[in-house]
Known about the structure:
single chain, 327 residues, alpha/beta, Elongation Factor Tu (Ef-tu), domain 3, Rossmann fold, Ubiquitin-like (UB roll), 3 domains, six-stranded antiparallel β-sheet
Amino acid sequence: xxxxxxxxxxxxxxxxxxxxxxxxxxxxxxxxxxxxxxxxxxxxxxxxxxxxxxxxxxxxxxxxxxxxxxxxxxxxxxxxxxxxxxxxxxxxxxxxxxxxxxxxxxxxxxxxxxxxxxxxxxxxxxxxxxxxxxxxxxxxxxxxxxxxxxxxxxxxxxxxxxxxxxxxxxxxxxxxxxxxxxxxxxxxxxxxxxxxxxxxxxxxxxxxxxxxxxxxxxxxxxxxxxxxxxxxxxxxxxxxxxxxxxxxxxxxxxxxxxxxxxxxxxxxxxxxxxxxxxxxxxxxxxxxxxxxxxxxxxxxxxxxxxxxxxxxxxxxxxxxxxxxxxx
Length: 327
């Protein structure tokens, strides 16, 4: 079931870096907004362009005040959005908005929940800091031990640093790629950690993959590795076009090499639930009647992938010429 939609007004906009804007959203009538757990996000409706179909983009909710219990309801939601000039246009649209603009926003959901063990490692890359800020704030409020490693291309590219430092203190460790003295070394970070100390990581796919691979190589259990990807899946070299047939109508659609099954469905007016667009939340699970699936998600089990009866249409593709979907 989709989260209910809210009408929210942009109350303020800040620019913590040259590429990132921070939006504060409030209810038009000033009412209390639904509460949220650290790691949660909202979906913002992005209007259709050129007569197309309106789509939704997910943005994590920020909290940098340990004194606020966001679970009890809040007066405002805060988002941090990095402008991506090469992308689907959601961030570019958001960066054009002004204070006073009204947005349609789905209430918070959480695919990246935080447990509260004795000691936690938080690792954020760039705009991946947004869910980590809320996690760090809650850990501080509960007096749990944690370290927040925050990495970016340059020190100036890191947003919200002063707010984080105000409550995290020395638990906040900054890393800059252009500074050999502070550049993030995943090996060094994990060598100084206890085996199976819970790790939460959010940021670019390359950083997440490197952290997970290094931890697994050292013997970390999968249950102690938690991540959220801050980018949509990109086309891979060798991807080709294929067809999808909708079982209910018999309609056949062509999925181009550079477009996902999900976007092809949406562009043709097919109503499909979705959220993460990166293959980990499971919301777009779709039953497959026939055809061979090229599974690229992290949501399905290995057994489910072998069975080939369901796919995540946001990232997975087709190994045969056609997939027949139960739509």
